[in-house]
Amino acid sequence: MRGLGERVIRALRHAAPALLAYAAVRTLGLLVLTEWAHRTHRSVRHLLMRSWDCDWYLRIADHGYTHTLGTQFDANNLAFFPLYPALVRAADTLLPWLPRGAAGLGITLVCSFLAAWGIFAVGDRLYGRRAGVVLACLWGSLPVALVQWMGYTESLFTALTAWSLYAVLTGRWLWAGSLAALAGVTRPTGVALAAAVSVTALLTLRGKATRFPPRPLLGALLAPLGWLAYVGWVGLRLGRWDGYFAVQKLWRNEWDGGVETLRRMRDLFMTERPPLFLAMVTATLLGAVVLYVLSVGDRQPLPLLVFSGLLLLIVLGSSGVYFPRARFLLPGFPLLLPLAVALARARTRVTATVLTAAAFGSSVFGGHMLLGWHGPP
Description:
Blueprint: H1 2-39, H2 44-49, H3 53-63, H4 83-94, H5 100-127, H6 129-140, H7 154-169, H8 173-183, H9 190-203, H10 214-222, H11 225-238, H12 243-250, H13 259-270, H14 276-297, H15 302-316, H16 325-328, H17 337-345, H18 348-372
Helix pairs in contact: 1-5, 1-6, 1-18, 3-4, 4-5, 5-6, 5-7, 6-17, 6-18, 7-8, 7-9, 8-9, 8-10, 9-10, 9-15, 14-15
């Protein structure tokens, strides 16, 4: 145990610049939001702890899941995966004096730093410490990064994703599969991480027809179990094999190959005057595609390309609601690697200027997202 503790302390010291930079960026965003909310007589606590999806998760933690499919649109809570509300419920059991909204936000805050640490670890391993620091800072400076400090699941999912991908890069297959399985009960896009882990693990077995190494095989088998378990459980609960997909239809969410996404983009810029928030969402989606092409050109490791590619396919190919798609891409931090590497190689003054501008831009847009945009992020 002492040796493990010493390794953790060394790793934390190595990651300290990234974690401090991330903390500074997100603290700036919180300060801007607090001032903006004060001027508009809104409660920051309510916005961060109990608004929109936060409330859905807290109600699941309080009352559990529904037993029926129903017919009402946007109302069935089985669309929300169970790990985060289970953690909130566990925190409530351990700390009964703590309000559940605060417990959920506390979990999110811890997970956001675990995510930033994992993101740094991936960038550091592939391109060096400076690139890792920049990558973590960029992730905290995305336009919708304020969600990372709300009672949402993006920080938890990103933490599991980052450390699972790091485990793949370092050959720790059981960790990779286990973390991917947990990600599979956190968000629907956990299937993208499961595929990245399983495909990479199985490819390591090529040419070993007589004797398979057990760890990659076990990692490949573990990775999809979380996602499959929840989808299967929903089917059993509703008494139909396609129960989960029926729930998604009630949320108007089906995979159409991107037809609805393209139609919405066309309408926004050809027949409508898009609000700032929707313009940013569109720019994020288009930018993500460009960054993925650059990532392929940079020959990123296969697990990162598989995860990012499938995440993009799921988010862009969905017919669901358009406005939260920038948030859905938050866990796709490997897409930021081309920018992080370029900034890490630039002069210090250039890097500092770009990251500072990104941090201020994220802070202002975060305030607009929660207070200027009349809807959930």
